[in-house]
Design goal:
This protein is an alpha+beta fold and 120 residues long. It contains two helices and four strands, in the order ββββαα. Among the domains are: 41 residues, Single Sheet (Rubrerythrin, domain 2), CATH 2.20.28; 39 residues. The radius of gyration is 33 Å and the shape is elongated.
């Protein structure tokens, strides 16, 4: 019975002893908790040497999409959302009713001229 290859199945040549501890340097870090208005907690980790003023006061909660703050008892409130505006709503903001009537009459006049129902 001939055996070939590694003595330990699934190991690489030169991989070192199993359970090797030297996998790089682990930097010290601090855990910061954030809470949203629904009570969801999100933990973010920052390097321990980051100044306190550089750690954000609020983030967007990944599970709810709501803003989340660092105070559990006082989470940030959702800003009032503006409803979706249609193109017509934006036009109405820019034009008065009289301007709209004038533009409509002009457009209809040009259309009638093109169709031949009105002489220029």
């Amino acid at each position: 019975m001939a055996t070939g290859g590694s003595a330990i199945r699934g190991s690489r040549v030169g991989s070192g002893p199993m359970g090797e501890q030297d996998h790089g340097f682990q930097a010290e870090r601090v855990a910061v908790s954030y809470w949203d208005a629904l009570g969801n907690e999100t933990v973010r980790y920052f390097a321990a040497n980051v100044p306190e003023e550089e750690i954000p006061e609020s983030i967007d909660c990944p599970s709810s999409g709501l803003p989340a703050g660092r105070e559990k008892d006082n989470p940030p409130q959702v800003a009032k959302l503006e409803p979706y505006k249609t193109h017509l709503a934006y036009v109405k903001e820019r034009r008065t009713e009289a301007e709209a009537e004038e533009l409509l009459e002009d457009a209809l006049r040009q259309l009638r001229i093109r169709r031949g129902t009105l002489k220029a």
